[in-house]
Amino acid sequence: MSDFSRIVPTIIDKGIEKVDLSMFSPDAKTKLMEAVGDEYLKKGRLIDAIKAFSLAKNKEKLEKVGDDFRRVSDLNSAVDAYILANATEKLLELGDKCLREGSMAPAVKAFKAVGDINRLQLVGEECVTKNKIDTAIEVFAILGNAKRLSEIGEVCMKDGRLAYAAKAFEIAKDRDNLSRLGDFCLKENLVNAALQCYQLAGNSIMVEFIKQNFVV
């Protein structure tokens, strides 16, 4: 069966997830999903097109969807499509563009998918420079760079950004700095935050001290 013109509208109306296609052979299902994806493209429903072409395992058309997303400046979705298409060169090109333009989240996603450590390092440092600490922590966590995470945590602790400091120290498994952060929180009467830091640090003495002397 190659003419799916009567079936495609039904699938689009009901949604791919709600249609049982078990009666079709694998080859027929692939062709049907390609036809559905093409129809979604005509309608401008790019997210649904990605689903259909993913099921069809059609990397060429997934890459085309990525191009379409890029044309409408939906860079995050473009990266998603390129990842599914294994379009390494386009991921690197788009990641570089995002880095230049300060769109850090899709840049991180692109470089992570490709496994480009050097570019991820650049993104992480650029995020620190631009004060995008949450993304910087994410990047250095991906890289497993505990030293850089601890350095970021120390800066955040000095600046009073305690949640970021705790997150960085926790990911870095930096128990000494977690205990220091706990001490700082305790001095500021942030008892619950101090308790959490001491627990993460494995500082059983201070955990017990807080439990015995404060209502938490």
Describe this structure in words.
This protein is mostly helical and 216 residues long. The chain folds into three domains: 1-57, no CATH class; 74-143; 144-216, Tetratricopeptide repeat domain (Serine Threonine Protein Phosphatase 5, Tetratricopeptide repeat). The protein contains 14 helices and no strands. Helix 1 (8-14) packs across helix 2 and helix 9 (133-143) packs parallel to helix 11 (162-172). The protein is elongated and about 75 Å long.
Radius of gyration, taken over Cα atoms and rounded to an integer in Å: 24 Å
**Largest sheet report:** none
Please identify the structural class as seen in this structure. mainly alpha
Write down the CATH class of the largest domain. Mainly Alpha
Strand share of the residues?
Answer: under 5%
Secondary-structure element sequence?
HHHHHHHHHHHHHH
- Low-confidence segments, given as residue ranges, are none
Helicity, as a percent range: over 70%
CATH superfamily of the largest domain: Tetratricopeptide repeat domain
Domain module tally: 3
The CATH topology of the largest domain comes to Serine Threonine Protein Phosphatase 5, Tetratricopeptide repeat
What shape does the CA trace take? elongated
Provide mean pLDDT, rounded.
Answer: 94
| Through-space gap between termini | 68 Å
**CATH architecture term of the largest domain:** Alpha Horseshoe
Number of strand segments: 0
Structure characteristics:
216 residues, mainly alpha, Serine Threonine Protein Phosphatase 5, Tetratricopeptide repeat, 3 domains, 14 helices, 78% helix, 0% strand, elongated
